[in-house]
Amino acid sequence: MKLLSIKIKFWYLLTLVATVLWSAISVLVPLISGRFINAVTTDPHNISGIYFWLFLVCSVLQATFSAISTFLSLDLVKRVKNFFRINVVRSLFAHRKYQEKSLSSAITDINVSSSTIAEQYVKGEIDIVNCISMIILSSVGLFTINKTLSVVIIIISIIIVVFPKVFSKKSQKNREDQINAQDILNKRTTSFVKGIETLYNFGARGYFKRLLLKDNSAILSTEGKANNFKTVTYTVNAFLQITKTFVIIGLGAYLITKNQLSIGGLLAAIQIAATLGAPMEVLSMLLYSRREVEPIAKRVQAYTTEPTTEAKVIMDSIVTVNFNHYGQKIDGKEVLHDLSLTFEKKKKYLIVGKSGSGKSTLLRAISGVTVGEQYGELAINGLSGKSFKQIKLVTQSPAIFQASLADNLFLGERVDNQRLQQMINFLELNNLTDRFDLMNDSISEEDLSGGERQRIALGRALLAKPDVLLLDEFSSALDPDLSLKLEKHLLELPCMIISVSHHVNRELFDQYDEVVEIANGVVISITNPA
């Protein structure tokens, strides 16, 4: 069971042992009851003899282990679900950049796949071992009663197990199709709902709703096929079960007339056959279900690998950021080409250029978030390929987390109430204190305007006291006066600032040490505005 951690494997083995013990006792009870019936029919005074007490004790043990194994099975399912949910979350937080496809898959795995794996794969494996144990023990018990009767029962039971394999490949393929269809629906639903205002404004909600319903129809089709496979399997199994019961009673009655079987033996055989029939029937469905979810298990297993997270480098001070013939390609397209730039400690830089010229990609490269293929060198204090804690990035569309305003600003660091209030005053976010408790009320993107989101993002960067502050259109949603006030303050800070902007405050233009113009990923000019 490679999917599970060592801690959960202990509970897995404990559940397995308890379940197998219950199986053994469940087979022992009908054998003892048959002996008890034979003893009583031979001598009515034996009704309170040794077989009665053995029958009573084993029945109590059967009930006890049934309760224990049920509790442990449910507890194991709970632990496995929790294990996979935790691993999915860890995997998501190992990424440096938002990936919608990964998020869509993770949502499916948290909501659906974790339960499927826990119940059909992990617990299903225990149930399979339990069924096989019961089948073996029941077969041994039947042979002690009558060999002819046992052979007939076992042959029919084997047919019941083998039949579902006819649909195994088709059912696995159908399950893969169902997972893929569910991922597409999740991804599209998230995308469409995020842009619901745009869809309403353009009168396009009906069209995009029909697209989602079409995706849902694809899921419905796979669910229908799965139901068809199960219906055929259950129907054939039911027919074989009825046949087996008829054969047992008919053949058993014949053997009694030939004095080859006792009445107690027939009763024991009927009970064991029922005990054998249930695991045989269940085993066929368990094997079918387990094969069906194997594609999910392979996908979910990726979450159990401990994600590699590179610790950020902490230095006394960042002195230089140097690009040496650096370039970056995304999907084969070169977004940065042969850059050779040097940014120095405490200096202020303005990056200008048209949309799509590579300005934001440059900032993200400095912050340690890169996508695609890279060449050349990007060195910070002479070190390449490292992320630094003293570098903070403020984006045009910042992330707002479903947490308190204080947590959104301090991001897990100890909250300093005095600095918190000073930052709120400076950013002119006092109106938020009237709407939310700073420490306890959760906020979301929908609660805030674009300007409020940008100011919160700037505040969290300033509270971190970075050596390098990267600003990507940080004030695009702010009014001119507030934008001017904030930019003026930023230019007075004793840190390196690299700011990307389409709208330059001419009043502050000459306070930048250098203005770098980029077009199509290439530096076309570097000027000193002073």
From TrEMBL:
- One GO CC term, this protein: plasma membrane
Tell me the keywords, alphabetical order.
ATP-binding, Membrane, Nucleotide-binding, Transmembrane, Transmembrane helix
Q: Where is the ABC transporter domain?
A: 318-530
Q: Per the UniProt record, which residue ranges are transmembrane? A: 12-32, 52-77, 128-145, 151-168, 234-257, 263-288
Note whether DNA damage occurs among the keywords.
no
InterPro entries registered for this protein in UniProt: AAA+_ATPase, ABC1_TM_dom, ABC1_TM_sf, ABC_transporter-like_ATP-bd, ABC_transporter-like_CS, P-loop_NTPase, Type_1_exporter
Gene Ontology molecular function terms on file: ABC-type transporter activity; ATP binding; ATP hydrolysis activity; ATPase-coupled lipid transmembrane transporter activity
* Lineage top rank: taxon: Bacteria
Pfam families annotated for this entry? ABC_membrane, ABC_tran
Q: Where in the cell is it found?
A: Cell membrane
Domain ABC transmembrane type-1 residues, every copy = 13-292
For membrane topology, the record states:
Multi-pass membrane protein
Q: What is this protein called?
A: ABC transporter ATP-binding protein
> What species is this protein from?
Lapidilactobacillus concavus DSM 17758
